[in-house]
Amino acid sequence: MTIQWHSFELRPRHAPPISADYRAKIEAGRPRLYAVAREQYGLEMNPGPFGFDSRPALIGAKYAESQGVGPAYHAAVMKAYWLDAKAIDDLDVLTDIAVAVGLDRNAFQQALRTPIYDDQVQADIDQAYAYGINGVPGMVFVDKYLVSGAQPYEVLCQAVEQISGELDKDQ
Hints:
single chain, Glutaredoxin, 2 domains, 7 helices, 58% helix, globular
């Protein structure tokens, strides 16, 4: 199975501010998220700032993918935000990540201003909405089957088995 990352913005650049009630709901769920990360994966979560603009990181991902280092860039951005409390909307932070995964500093910074990568990000977001995705994570298997939300490994295994069975019936 091949995993292909696609862009999605939880808080688009010009979205209205998050209400205090909704922010409180998100914050209330974080201790459980941190406990699961610690207990099941041995990770101590230490997330970066809340409510950031993810668009530059997503554009950087498209460039990294075009240069053959997409998986390394994705992993480094996730680690920077969720474990190292970095602000991944900070262009210096993103540039340092890019250099650490083998990208040229100047070429990366130029790519962040290149419309083709921004267009690719927007195409992913439009596709997500067409699939009915309105949050993350959202996983689409074989361009047809949507699994929404953070699911336990066992649930994902069941989904793959069920989808494989349905695909076998169709052939």
